[in-house]
Amino acid sequence: MTFLRKILKLHIFKFILILFFSLGIFFGAGISFFFEFSELDRLKNYQPNTTTRIFDSNRKLVAELYLERREPTSLSKIPIRLRQAFLAIEDARFYEHPGVSYPDIIRAFFVNIRSGRFVQGGSTITQQLAKILFLTPERTLRRKVKEALIAIEIEKRFTKDEILEFYLNQIYLGNGAYGVQAAANIYFGKKLSELTLAESALIAGLPKAPSKFNPRKNPKKSIERRNLVLKRMLSEKFIKNTEKESAEDEFLTLNPFTLNQIPETAYFVEHVRKQLSKRYGKTIYRSGLQVYTTLDISLQKDVHTALLRGIKTLNKKRGFKDASKKTKIQPRLGDRFQFRITEIRRKRILGIIGIYEAHMDIPKKINYKLLNAGDIVLGKVQKLNKKSKKVFLKWQETIQGAVIAFDPRSGAVRAMTGGTNFRRFKFNRAVQAKRQPGSAFKPIIVGGALSLGYGPNHILMDSPFVERIPGTKRIWKPTNYSEKFYGPVTMRNALEKSLNLATIKLLIQIKPKKAIKFARRLGIHSKMYPYLSLALGSIEVTPYEFISSYIPFATNGIYARPYEIEKIADDENRIIEKFIPQFNLAISPETAFQMKLLLRGVVTNGTAKLAKNINQFVAGKTGTTNKYKDAWFVGFSNDLVLGVWVGKDSNKNMGFRASGGTAALPIWVEIMNKWIKRNDDKFRYPTSPPKVKLIKIDYKSGFLPSKKCFGKIISEAFVEGTEPTEKCS
Asked: Looking at the domain assignment, is residue 539 inside a domain?
């Protein structure tokens, strides 16, 4: 019975194929039964989805947003060799047939008969276009009939050149490329006019199976397909035998990466994409916008590299040995390693540590699909098998980080990274993480005091302090980082040494509400409570918001509102939107200048001495939170405000004395050194405002120098009327 059913099925199939063939010949005029004529008007006014491009401040392309990556090109700009390559392999009789090729249909008919199922359809270029634009990819006779009839109607309405142009701009060619120009860009990084014969043949060979013949995934099969296209071109007399042989010998050289976005810019691009999405919705993927941003790609790459290097160093300080460079490592129980993934087997990572094969289970909270070979992971040795040379580890959390750079003169974001690996960690810590700034908040307390008329030489008592926490029986007993007390110190000394107790005493004097008011003027809008712990940076704020609050210190008190997008143009480069920088006088020029000199002291005499050797006027403040959960350095040069934060996503102790000076500052110094080397060779000391006087004082006491004191003498900035009159005794 089964055999009889097969025979019956085969006869029915043959009958349907004959019926289809007959319909194609005799009832072409019956298209209206299957398809609305008005639908073809879509082809007349066809506007394909086009790519939105994102550029940096120097008009360098850094990313593209698209559903279908497409670069529409007129037929006249598509090289003849590329057209011939497509015609040779896809439809050699394109300029002769009426939309369907009856010889090809007959050939496909007999192939299908022999196989007993639907294998070939004998599609012409016009039929392929009909399928792409108007039909589903299902392999049914009903769809094939529609395809043929629509193709005949397309041929009636459009010229052959118009149809070929539609096709070459529509066809999918793998790797997200729709159309020949997108493919030329993605695979070879070239314009169409720059393609060689071999490259043209390779692109023409892709439509049949874009994934199978993808030169990135299957270079061998791609070259075999390319050579078949060249053979067909020769048989159609499009090329000579010498050209064919030369093209076959050409080495396959691909563009090093597919330009969706440059990896180092991923966090910045996603931040910009979200802004565009709020304004324009899903049209950003098909409207061909030209988005010009504030990004400095050179600085961005420096930021990315420095953060990766810095995090690797911090993990090393935590006790994680670097297994990527050492081959003689002998792992022991309890050892901790950072190593590269060589293979991922669903829920397990494989790697190499010395001569051992490393195995590590992936925790449930980690999405293993986001991990790739080459990624660096951390693990602690749980088990060893010396015979099989296998080591088994337990997953360990890495330190993460965020870096942001602003142009203080305009508010433009010049660089931003929100983590070490965007593919794995989509969470952008630069704009989404709420972290405590710790001691990096102290300049805001000091700035608030200066704005109220205090002088930098104001004496504070750094002594023990105890307070009952309101509403509880608990006692708050803060200490200094050094766990020492320094007695009477100037406001400058307190800031340079980052003394907690002296800063708390200053906050008591100026009142917490006034400090909050000053912070608001600097652009901090997060919640702040009028508690004394504010002096130690107990608020939660994003790095983006907090780092930008240093902008008025770098300028003459002017706060420039941060922004990332300079202008947006349409696909014909007509301006749709343009950002105008926004400024306001946040603090007085006098206060800003005083803060510059005080924060310079943190670099020359205080907790940021690592930055002392930078060949430019730089200033800033370290920040460390309780139990070493957060480490910061926020600082500035004449033309850049730069901030670095590092910590764990779990908000746990980083595992060593990770202060702002030891964990964040080295990353900052590496970035700033490269920035200054490129942009600012001459050391420029800031000029003082008219109402500020530079007075020589005794560094330790804050009084005017005298023969009775033998301490260091410095020049301090005082607003007229606040300068000291008493001599040191």
From this structure: yes
Does 523 reside within a domain? yes
Could you tell me the residue range of the domain that residue 351 belongs to?
Answer: 332-397
* Per-residue CA distances from 403 to 107, 428, 630 (Å): 63, 10, 13
CB 182 within 8 A of CB 70: yes
Nearest in space to 541 (alpha carbons), one of 456, 617, 645, 459 = 645
**Same domain as 110, residue 158:** yes
Residues 6+ apart with CB under 8 A from 32: none
| Same-domain status, 599 and 455 | yes
Mark whether 158 and 198 lie in a shared domain. yes
> Which string of DSSP letters, residue by residue, matches 100-158?
S-HHHHHHHHHHHHHHTS-------HHHHHHHHHHS-----HHHHHHHHHHHHHHHHHS
Domain closes at, from 397, 427, 444: 397
Beta bridge partners of 692: 719
Q: Say yes or no: 108 and 183 in one domain.
A: yes
Mean pLDDT over each residue of the chain, to the nearest integer: 87
In a domain? residue 289: no
The span from the CA of 628 to the CA of 487, in Å, is 25
% the chain with pLDDT above 90: 64
Task: Please enumerate in sequence order all residues whose Cβ is within 8 A of that of 372, keeping only pairs 6 or more positions apart, or say none.
Answer: 341, 344, 423
SS3 state at 275: helix
CA-wise closest residue to 225 among 245, 241, 235, 210? 210
- Spatial separation of the C-alpha atoms in residues 623 and 521, rounded to whole Å: 21
Tell me phi and psi for residue 547, to 5 degrees. -65, -35
CATH code of the domain in which 338 resides: 2.40.50.140
Closest of 445, 114, 56, 560 to residue 272, by C-alpha: 56
Catalytic residue among 90, 147, 670, 716: 90
725 CB neighbour count, 10 Å cutoff:
6
107 confidence band (pLDDT: 50, 70, 90): low
For residue 581, give the 3-state DSSP assignment: coil
Domain with 407 in it: what CATH number? Answer: 3.40.710.10
Q: For CA atoms 628, 630, 633, 634, give the dihedral sign.
A: negative
- A 10 A CB-CB count for 196 gives 15
Report residue 365's pLDDT band, with 50, 70 and 90 as the boundaries.
Answer: confident
Q: Is residue 548 part of a domain?
A: yes
3-state class of 718 per DSSP?
strand
| Secondary structure of residue 425 in the 3-state scheme | coil
CA distance 555 to 686: 10
CA 698 to chain CA centroid, nearest Å: 49
Residue 552 confidence class, pLDDT cut points 50, 70, 90? very high
The residues facing 242 across adjacent strands are none
Tokens of 52: 């939105």
Catalytic residue selected from 101, 222, 410, 439: 439
Last residue of a domain, one of 260, 278, 293: 260
User: Which CATH number fits the domain that encloses residue 112?
Assistant: 1.10.3810.10
Residues 86 and 162 in one domain: yes
For 252-311, write each residue's pLDDT tens digit: 888 765 545 677 999 999 999 999 999 998 888 878 899 999 999 999 999 999 999 999
Task: pLDDT band for 647, please (50, 70, 90 cuts).
Answer: very high
Does residue 700 contact residue 493 with C-beta atoms inside 8 Å?
yes
Q: Is 90 part of the annotated catalytic residue set? A: yes
Q: What is the dihedral of CA 526, 530, 532, 537, to 10 degrees?
A: 10
For the chain, counts of helices (H) and of strands (E): 21, 26
Domain count, the chain: 4
**Domain identity same for 486 and 379:** no
Q: Are residues 384 and 443 in the same domain?
A: no
CB 51 within 8 A of CB 69: yes
pLDDT exceeds cutoff 70 at 38:
no
438 and 357 inside one domain? no
CB atoms within 10 A of CB 488: 14
**Catalytic status, residue 243:** no
